[in-house]
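User: Good morning. I'm curious how manganese (II) ion would be positioned relative to this chain. Could you predict the structure with it bound?
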Amino acid sequence: MIVSVSADAPDTTARKVLAAAVAAGLEARGMDDGHGGTIIGIDGSLPDDDLALPGVRAVHPHHKPYMLASREHRPHAPTVVRVGDVRIGGGRPVMMAGPCVVEGRSSLLEIATAVKVAGADILRGGAFKPRTSPYAFQGLGEEGLRYLAEARDATGMPVVTEVMEPDQVELVAHYADILQIGARNMANFPLLRRVGATGRAILLKRGFSATVEEWLMSAEYILASGNARVILCERGIRGFDPALRFTLDLTAVPFAKELTHLPVIVDPSHGTGKRSLVGRMAMAGLAAGADGLMIEVHPDPERARCDAAQTITPDELAQINRSGRALHAALVETGDAAAELSADREPVPVGV
Ligand code: PEP
Ligand code: MN
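Assistant: Good morning! Here's the predicted structure, ligand included:
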């Protein structure tokens, strides 16, 4: 059940509800509702007597299995994940861009500067890579993390990078601003719990054979570990046509946003596997309501050490950025998208 406690309730109310759940042997989590009140998710039901407390505003006996991630949990406002000065989910779409894999210090610094000039807000780059073949380049590991941190210092852009193993979470969190959970690890529950414990923002990619509900259940693992800073990323699912690497499931974007308060971004690079399709599908992702994009960029895409076929140039990124801004402005103008948030119309910020 979900118990909603109003802002003017005495402090004891939420505590008593949580204590009653513990006494009944039920898992329970409380999170702020963004308006000074508390929403408590309980994996089971409490008798009415336990809930007859001042300030209990509403009780929903039926809820989705992903109760903390569900829209009902934050009905008034979407979650905005703040990373440095960047707000993900705040109305203005964010651009995450960079190489598939960090190849070296100077090349990363060059790409970071180029994507920033092209309009990126956040730098991406893999240091630990989940390659299908054990013989393919696996990434530079900690050396790659150090270069990412250096590129952040040089450009001011926060960095996002993948973490693959529970035991590497602290190491990656030491260097990165956003921890990426890759498609192949979406259902690695020990990893989800571990990244949940860091409090770092988490980019959760959808597994390529995962349903939207399974994706949201994975988000729930992170939220239930006490970390509300989750960004979902649609990156394509396995279709029947081998002509393309994956099928970008753009229906999942507005669908997921109906079900959850969390921001959703789109990765048209992995979603297509084909450079010529990336720009169009980036626009389609924004039209579908995405809160941002993640795009693989390299100054010499043909020579990228990983995912060359889907990698675009900084100039192409700049074009996507221009078109994307114009598209978003047009959607705002016609009332079809949220404008960049002003101070007086702020949804729930989560984290620092
Ligand atoms: C990546 O972003 O480089 C990546 C490996 O993505 P995915 O997990 O979506 O395949
Ligand atoms: Mn890649």
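Residues 342-349 have pLDDT under 50 and may be disordered. The two ends are 29 Å apart (CA to CA).
Let me know if you'd like a different ligand tried.
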